[in-house]
Amino acid sequence: MGTVDPRRQGRDAYERLAWREAYEGLSAADRQAPLMADDLDRLARAAYLIGATDVATGTWERAHHAFLDRGEVAGAVRCAFWIGLTLLLRGEHARGGGWLTRAQHILEDAALCCVERGYLRVPAALRALNGGDAEAAKRSFVEITEIADLFDDTDLRALGSLGRGQSLMAQGRAAQGVELLDETMVAVTTGEVSPITAGIVYCAVILACRGIYDLRRVQEWTEALSRWCATQQDLQPYRGQCLVHRSEIMQLRGDWADAMDEVCRACKHLSTSHGDPALGMALYQRAELLRLRGEFSQAERYYREAGGRGHSAQPGLALLRLAQGRLDDAAAAIRRTLVETEGLEERPGVLVGSVEIELAAGGVEDAQQAVDELDRIAAGFESPYLRAVAAYARGSVLLAAGAPEAACTALRRAWTAWHGNEAPYEAARVRVELARAYRQVGDRDTAEMELEAAQRVFAELGAAPALEQVRELRGTAGRAAPRSPEGLTPREIEVLRLIATGASNRVIADRLVISDKTVARHVSNIFTKLGVSSRAAATAYAYEHDLV
């Protein structure tokens, strides 16, 4: 039998997207004899994709010099670009900028016309975009795309199209921007783009859609990112951010236990990465879930950790102070945050927090100003989510201002929107406000029905503070809330319905954006509660009780 060639094994694994195997095989080959430039580039990419960024930058540096020694300027510049971009993403701006400047000088000295000229224009275009000059950024990304087309480089074309879409959205042309992002994702989802670029585009598109509150696209592309991550061995970047977005979607849908599982996985995954900014996002999401469940001390801990990682702790921390009865602290924090927050992506959340806190403090006029601004922002987006947020805020202000009839109209509109978004917690909060409004107009029976429905949802979610508020309104503090038939939760009923269609656990996981393990837990709980031992028996129960 012949000796196993680790270089060949590493190359084969690289083609199979088995990044750990590729890294180990090429590393073993490198120890036997120094790798050539192309294999060093493969080793650097494999290292990057398993999260070994220090190894990746060091190996790209070796590849850079190896390409120069062979007189291959374009390959050397490409490696310098990835070193520079990786360092910039880690916050090492001096080193990253130094490598990009070096690459630019090498190209100028060689007077070489190559696609790498387009790559080196990407960081400057991003600086223009992040600096608020969307028009200049768009022009740069158009030129980058033209260079990509000239050399038929799919990676650069994807980065250029991504930037053009982001620039259009920054200019307020969300519909055009989203169309371009969707087109960009076609190349990514069909495998035309290399893994590192694909991961960058996936995450950027999801964040862009999240920024305009297009939750349908966020969910769709998050599902696609989850599937993409699952096809690649030991993939480290991108997976953690994907888990955070999955958690946010699950929270909105009312699957709080699953949302907590996902964000805990995200925190663990991202903690192994050096300086990953998504960790702050994950910590904040964890704090939000804990606050809504009434676990205030733990929530405060994670808000503070999120702040330490560079992610704002507001408006969540201010809302936590409100829930703790520290109204002065809450008001001071939200007012400061409102002054400091300028971006359209972050401002709606702060405005919503401002409405809630100002109303609690008796500041109806200040709350009204926040609602007016929220309405203006919502009018600029085609977002059912943002329209629901604005309608709820307006209804709350109208109720506080002594206009219960007008409040009922706005709140009913908000409930319809939240119900259409399949957001049970938000819909239940609207019902509480509707109950207050109905009481003020003398319709106590309908008010009681709204409170009963809200109480049931809060109990099923484990939303302890909201549940206690409803119980106090109903005068039933201390009583147990009713459960669904056989004690099934809304999520378990949803799983049961899918079981009845013949869906496998894998299909159910994809449909509901949860893990296979979580589906298995739900199925086990369903079997236990129904007293059955097979999917066929569970299906029969579903049909007998008109659940499908």
The major β-sheet equals: none
Question: How confident overall, as mean pLDDT?
Answer: 90
- The percent range for strand residues is under 5%
- Radius of gyration, whole Å: 26 Å
Taken from the alpha-carbon principal axes, the silhouette is globular
Order of helices and strands: HHHHHHHHHHHHHHHHHHHHHHHHHHHHHH
Q: Give the helix tally.
A: 30
Question: How is the quaternary structure best described?
Answer: single chain
Can you tell me the residue ranges where pLDDT is under 50 for at least 5 consecutive residues? 477-483
Number of strands: 0
Quote the distance from N terminus to C terminus: 60 Å
Helix content: over 70%
Indicate the structural class: mainly alpha
Descriptive report:
The termini are far apart. The protein is globular. The chain has 548 residues and is an all-alpha fold. Residues 477-483 have low confidence and may be disordered. The chain has helices spanning 6-15, 19-32, 37-49, 53-69, 73-89, 93-110, 116-119, 122-130, 134-151, 154-170, 174-189, 195-211, 215-230, 239-253, 256-271, 278-293, 296-308, 316-323, 327-340, 347-360, 364-379, 384-400, 404-420, 424-440, 444-461, 464-474, 490-500, 505-512, 516-530, 535-544.
